[in-house]
UniProtKB/TrEMBL annotation:
<comment type="pathway">
    <text>Protein modification; protein glycosylation.</text>
</comment>
<keyword id="KW-0333">Golgi apparatus</keyword>
<dbReference type="GO" id="GO:0006487">
    <property type="term" value="P:protein N-linked glycosylation"/>
</dbReference>
<feature type="domain" description="Glycosyltransferase family 18 catalytic">
    <location>
        <begin position="160"/>
        <end position="713"/>
    </location>
</feature>
<keyword id="KW-1133">Transmembrane helix</keyword>
<comment type="similarity">
    <text>Belongs to the glycosyltransferase 18 family.</text>
</comment>
<dbReference type="GO" id="GO:0030144">
    <property type="term" value="F:alpha-1,6-mannosylglycoprotein 6-beta-N-acetylglucosaminyltransferase activity"/>
</dbReference>
<feature type="signal peptide">
    <location>
        <begin position="1"/>
        <end position="20"/>
    </location>
</feature>
<keyword id="KW-0472">Membrane</keyword>
<keyword id="KW-0812">Transmembrane</keyword>
<keyword id="KW-0328">Glycosyltransferase</keyword>
<keyword id="KW-0808">Transferase</keyword>
<protein>
    <recommendedName>
        <fullName>alpha-1,6-mannosyl-glycoprotein 6-beta-N-acetylglucosaminyltransferase</fullName>
        <ecNumber>2.4.1.155</ecNumber>
    </recommendedName>
</protein>
<keyword id="KW-0732">Signal</keyword>
<keyword id="KW-0735">Signal-anchor</keyword>
<keyword id="KW-0325">Glycoprotein</keyword>
<dbReference type="InterPro" id="IPR026116">
    <property type="entry name" value="GT18_cat"/>
</dbReference>
Length: 728
């Protein structure tokens, strides 16, 4: 009896366990490609149910026989009548329970059989549908048939298609192309979620200025010399950043600012891009890019935005939601970031791994681009047709999505960096401790010094020359013996050297780095070479392949144009007399430490705040078109600058009309619209007017003596050329 009771209990437990998963098999929204597997499992379970039912019936019969046998023998023992009654009443109850269980199992088996028959029929219908899918002919989806044809031939070329359920059948192609991508219409037999009104978006969290940089240092991470350098810079400038943040907070007077979720992917530091910078940090390699990235991180963090920092491809894929495979499929989730700051290397990585999502979300990207990308190089079709295609251009982004180190052209956004700002006491101390005959040469690599012996000899007649050239102990650098070389210095020691020196001299390279501004901020005069002819992609190897036709007239055009004398002297180094005269004049010139506002911590915070909050459609919204729009055969940027204004490409749309020509008293015998980065313009010597056909080609850059271009100009904040007076 104990054995029978145990068997019954075990059977009941096994029954409950077996059925537990079978009645939760099919969920709403499951892929039709799992039906066949579930049906097969259910058929096996139906057999188990029947065996259980048969087993319980057999147990009940055997127990009944056993009970009758024992009853017939024990009835002869009259003395034990009361005992027998007590003894067999439980057995009788157990039989009733087993009989009830058997009946329930039998009923369940019948119901399961009915359910499974229906499932089999539905499965056959699904299989039939899968086998009978036809490519829809819908004029709203003209690319559907071509995409299905491509999928037939190439769906195994990337595992991401199988990840999304593609199995080689026509229906799986159509499901993918309608539900994951958007080239085909939804299939009518698919479970379509009822169209519900979208819930009202939750109110955005408000950005609050931060007062501690500790968490940012954790976000930057470790493991690379470049990251260590960036963290040291953030710490070194920490107090200046915090003071600047407090001043801007007071200036904005509690204005509401939406907090943005921002991904910062520094592509040039990834192993996949070669990470050529990290090994060169300790050897005098270029640090300008890392200086800029460190300052971007500090500014965005202090403004109160939510940041995620990545320096590897694996981290990028994880944060974007890239499906497994080779990058041909869209992201698995909606992009969780409002903005992505990256560089050209990161941009290429995103394009390779985001599939169609790259085009969908490209408007959220901001590209840190040292030298800038002009519209003629950015527009893929135009660049290909007109010979402007390079390895770095043709992205078809809004030109203001490219963010530069210096304000090369208003076509791009000026991001910049910061230099250390001195207080009044520090400035006075520097002025009183300057060594009037001390010069520091700009250039930490020995190659920069080669061929400069003539200049050095002239300079040595008047000044003590110091260098900061990297060298290994066993191989000192090849610099003249009269040069006092300090080797590669930490940043704070380099700053101390600049605070003593009278002159900071450049020999033509590197171009447009942060060091000249740091020298000027520490009270040095910067002497640089004038290039004649100007350097550009047409005549100089360094600029060849860069997406710009900009002509560089000196080693540091910003210092020449926006600062100038007495802080900056630009002379012809090929003219020894002019060079020597400049050195003599500089030695007798007194200058105060000077730093343009736009390169202070507050200036950069102000600028990035305006970009993050107000760049709508990738440009700052200006309130009005100032006076000054006009025609000139020169470059619009130079034309506006002569009038104390700056070219504003977003205003081109206001000039790109026939009425604009009439208002400017330009008579047009004919007016045509074409793709040309110089338009709108009028042909010189004729009365032929040209309008711009492609808005992406509106450009403040470019010049051709054949045309007189229309120049849209705007005002700007004092010391902040990137922003109009009312744009903060």
């Amino acid at each position: 009896r104990i054995f029978v009771l145990g068997i019954g209990f075990f059977t009941l437990c096994f029954l409950m366990t077996s059925l537990g998963g079978q009645f939760s098999a099919k969920r709403l929204g499951d892929s039709p490609f799992t039906i066949r597997t579930e049906v097969m499992g259910a058929l096996e379970s139906r057999g188990v149910l029947r065996k259980m039912s048969d087993m319980l019936e057999l147990l009940m019969k055997r127990m009944d026989i056993l009970a009758r046998l024992e009853n017939s023998s024990d009835l002869h023992k009259a003395d034990d009548g009361r005992f027998l009654l007590d003894r067999f009443q439980p057995a009788s109850g157990l039989m009733e329970r087993i009989q009830a269980i058997a009946q329930n199992v039998s009923d369940i088996a019948i119901k399961v059989d009915q359910i499974l028959r229906n499932s089999l029929m539905n499965g056959k219908m699904m299989d039939s549908r899968r086998d009978q899918c036809e490519v829809p002919r819908d004029p709203k989806y003209p690319d559907c048939a071509g995409k299905v044809e491509w999928m037939r031939a190439r769906w195994t070329s990337d595992p991401c298609y199988a990840f999304f359920g593609v199995d080689g059948t026509e229906c799986s192609f159509l499901i993918y192309l309608s539900e994951v991508e958007w080239f085909c219409p939804p299939l009518p037999w698919r479970n379509q979620t009822a169209a519900l009104p979208s819930p009202a978006p939750l109110p955005r969290a408000q950005a609050a200025f931060r007062s501690d940089l500790t968490h940012l240092l954790e976000l930057v991470g470790t493991g690379k010399e470049s990251l260590i350098f960036m963290k040291k810079r953030i710490r070194h400038l920490g107090q200046q950043w915090l003071r600047a943040a407090r001043r801007l907070e007071q200036k904005l007077k509690g204005r509401r600012r939406d907090q943005k979720h921002i991904l910062i992917h520094i592509g040039f530091l990834t192993e996949e891009s070669g990470d050529v910078f990290s090994p060169r940090v300790l050897k005098g390699g270029p640090l300008g890019e890392m200086v800029q990235w460190a300052d971007i991180l500090a500014a965005l963090f202090l403004l109160g935005h939510s940041l995620r920092v990545t320096v590897s491809l694996k981290e990028l894929q994880s944060n974007l939601g890239v499906p497994p495979g080779r990058g041909n499929c869209p992201l698995t989730i909606p992009l969780p970031f409002d903005l992505i700051y990256t560089d050209y290397h990161g941009l290429q990585q995103m394009k390779q791994h985001m599939g169609l999502s790259f085009k969908k979300y490209s408007c959220r990207v901001r590209v840190i681009d040292t030298f800038g990308t002009e519209p003629a190089y950015n527009h893929e079709e135009y660049a290909t047709l007109r010979g402007y295609r390079t390895n770095w251009g043709y992205w078809n982004l809004q030109p203001t999505q490219f963010m530069t180190m210096f304000p090369h052209t208003p076509d791009n956004s000026f991001m910049g960096f910061v230099s250390e700002e001195l207080n009044r006491t520090e400035k006075q101390f520097i002025k009183s401790n300057k060594v009037s005959n001390m010069a520091v040469v700009y250039g930490k690599e020995a190659s920069i010094w080669k061929g400069k012996e003539k200049f050095l000899a002239i300079l040595n007649k008047y000044m003590e020359i110091h260098g900061t050239v990297y060298y290994e102990t066993q191989r000192p650098p090849e610099v003249p013996a009269f040069v006092k070389n300090h080797g590669l210095l930490p940043q704070h020691e380099f700053q101390q050297l600049l605070r003593k020196a009278k002159l900071f001299i450049g020999f033509g390279f590197p171009y447009e780095g942060p060091a000249p501004l740091e020298a000027i901020a520490n009270g040095c005069v910067f002497l640089q070479a004038r290039f004649n002819p100007p350097h550009s992609s047409l005549n100089h190897e360094f600029f060849r392949g860069k997406p710009t036709s900009r002509e560089v007239s000196s080693q540091h055009p910003y210092a020449e144009a926006f600062i100038g004398k007495p802080h900056v002297w630009t002379v012809d180094y090929n003219n020894s007399e002019e060079f020597e005269a400049a050195i003599k004049a500089i030695m007798s010139t007194q200058v105060d430490p000077y730093l343009p506002y736009e390169y202070t911590c507050e200036g950069m915070l102000e600028r990035i705040h305006a970009y993050v909050q107000h760049q709508v459609g990738h440009f700052i919204v200006h309130r009005e078109l100032p006076d000054g729009a006009g025609g000139d055969p020169e470059k619009p940027g130079e034309t506006c600058r002569r009038r104390g204004l700056v070219c504003e490409p977003t205003f081109f749309k206001l000039l790109n009309t026939k009425d604009a020509f009439l208002q400017l008293s330009i008579a047009c015998d004919s007016t045509e619209a074409e793709m040309n980065h110089l338009y709108p313009a009028v042909a010189e010597g004729a009365r032929e007017c040209y309008l711009q056909k492609e808005p992406l080609l509106f450009s403040c850059a470019g010049f051709n003596s054949k045309y007189r271009r229309l120049c849209p100009c705007r005002d700007y904040r004092e010391g902040q050329v990137a922003l109009c007076r009312d744009c903060l």
